[in-house]
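Subject: design request, 186 residues
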């Protein structure tokens, strides 16, 4: 995929970071479905780690400046979390080659989502420490595992399906194995 196409996709994903949260929060589903995670993870999957990491920082920053979501305080721990999502999605997908695109996507998404939550929890813990607030493993599990479970399920259902649809529509290139053949989708 050309760099121009990657820049356009990254810009579109950053725009989605500004549009999706207000839409989800308007119907009371923002905190449950983590709408900003979708475009950042997608950017990492489609464009690679540099674009995914950039989207993970630029998306919430631009959204904070234009919509007030997230708040400036939340931005301090959301940006590292989202940056990690984009970074790890791009890195892992680059190296994972099972021979099946769907398997590659899941073997990329699950660890990237876990690592992003760990980075987000660590950033939030440092923020709490700086502000002399209490933060514990139980609070992290509640905030990053229990509360975001519906969003994680949405991400695991929607993103692989979207990538497969975009590949079949030839809007993004197919993945290729070491033998030079296109990988099977399933």
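Subject: RE: design request

Done. Sequence follows.
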């Amino acid at each position: 995929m050309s760099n121009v196409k990657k820049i356009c996709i990254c810009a579109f994903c950053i725009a989605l970071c500004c549009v999706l949260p207000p839409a989800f929060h308007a119907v009371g589903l923002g905190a449950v479905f983590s709408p900003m995670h979708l475009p950042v993870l997608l950017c990492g999957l489609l464009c690679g780690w540099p674009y995914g990491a950039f989207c993970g920082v630029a998306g919430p920053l631009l959204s904070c400046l234009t919509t007030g979501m997230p708040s400036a305080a939340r931005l301090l721990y959301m940006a590292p979390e989202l940056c990690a999502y984009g970074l790890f999605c791009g890195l892992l997908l680059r190296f994972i080659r099972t021979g099946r695109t769907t398997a590659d996507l899941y073997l990329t998404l699950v660890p990237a989502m876990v690592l992003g939550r760990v980075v987000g929890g660590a950033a939030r813990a440092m923020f709490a420490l700086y502000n002399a607030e209490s933060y514990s493993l139980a609070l992290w599990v509640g905030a990053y595992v229990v509360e975001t479970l519906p969003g994680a399920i949405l991400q695991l259902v929607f993103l692989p399906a979207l990538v497969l649809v975009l590949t079949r529509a030839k809007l993004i290139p197919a993945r290729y194995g070491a033998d030079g053949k296109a990988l099977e989708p399933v």
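The first helix runs from residue 3 to 26.
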